[in-house]
User: What shape does this take?
Amino acid sequence: MALCFFFFFFCSLFHLSLSSTTTTANLSISFPLFTPHSHPSTTNLLHDSLISRKSVVQPKGTPSYNYKLPFKYSMAPIVSLPIGTPPQTQQMVLDTGSQLSWIQCHKKVLRKAPPPASIFDPSLSSTFSVLPCNHPICKPRVPDFTLPTTCDQNRLCHYSYFYADGTLAEGNLVREKFTFSTATSTPPLTLGCAQDTSDTKGILGMNLGRLSFPSQAKITKFSYCIPSRPAQTGSASPTGTFYLGNNPNSATFRYVDLLTFSQSQRMPNLDPLAYTVVMLGVRIGGNKLSILPSVFRPDASGAGQTMIDSGSELTYFVDEAYNKVKEEIVKLVGPKLKKGYVYANVADMCFDSNVGPLIGDMVLEFDKGVEIVIAKEQILHNVEGKVWCVAIGRSDMIGAASNIIGNVHQQNQWVEFDLANRRVGFGKADCSRSV
Assistant: This one.
């Protein structure tokens, strides 16, 4: 997947792909998460005539959404959303670790062949508009992105994201609406419009930032249920469920409060826009590991923050926690450890078979008695061939000083983000079923 790293205090979460095929795999640190080889290009621009399109006036009052849809799960949840008027279906990575949503656009007049159907065609939408560089969003008091927004040669607002591998994702900021039904749509939202890239999937940014999808659409609650993947790589992607608005299952959820931070708290290692929770410890095979709870909480520099990130495949721990987990794994199944093997430079608890049943269940403990239980059969993941690895990486190897709960450890759980009450809920479920 992708590992994005925002400098300043708006650092986003870190994403890593398990798509590598060699034992000496490098970090896949690009955007979006499951296609690490392409980035939006700046060589082509939207047609000048798009500037003349007018934005739709936002309706009065706060909109109410109750929308359910399935998604495909490969290395992250992939939702298909209707965007524009008339709507064009766009595939987007559901990413609670990102702020700006962006879609793949194209400049029709520059293409000799029709583009893939999943790429958005601005010329077909009556509600599409671009942001000029004198728009307030383009000149924020505090930058929203790694590099300041700029004016391109057409006086349009140009944004850039800088990633840890030194590459850029960039394009123009635009405005467009999501149309869920004839009776339900969002007002025009600010999105990124990427052009001339081979990738056909975008990002649905779901964090706490002012430009995230929930913030702009005034969505106060959303939830998803990520199914377990087939044991072997290459199998068909399973289907999960995504709710915008109320979830009929929420009466069974247990909630942990979000830690919130002022955006003026410019700690170098802190992401104040992430979904940060209080984690207390880890149990493996019924044994509570000797990890101080402070390891999972941000210190004065922001290091140690624990985040819930649907866009990160792996879970990552800071060294103090990772070393204790490895110590316990080695104690239980050390002779079977694949010596000298490090997957993607971050995970070195790997084996030639799924030894999970010998390890036992793993439990992530949170505040208020909330737990995520990872069944022993699901602790390890088949990363390539017959190699299985515990799906936990060292966060310092991706340049982070954070604990990140990735989507592999959110499988078969309802995860609900209750923004109005500043909390995250969890509920055990069989996410492969219609729920």
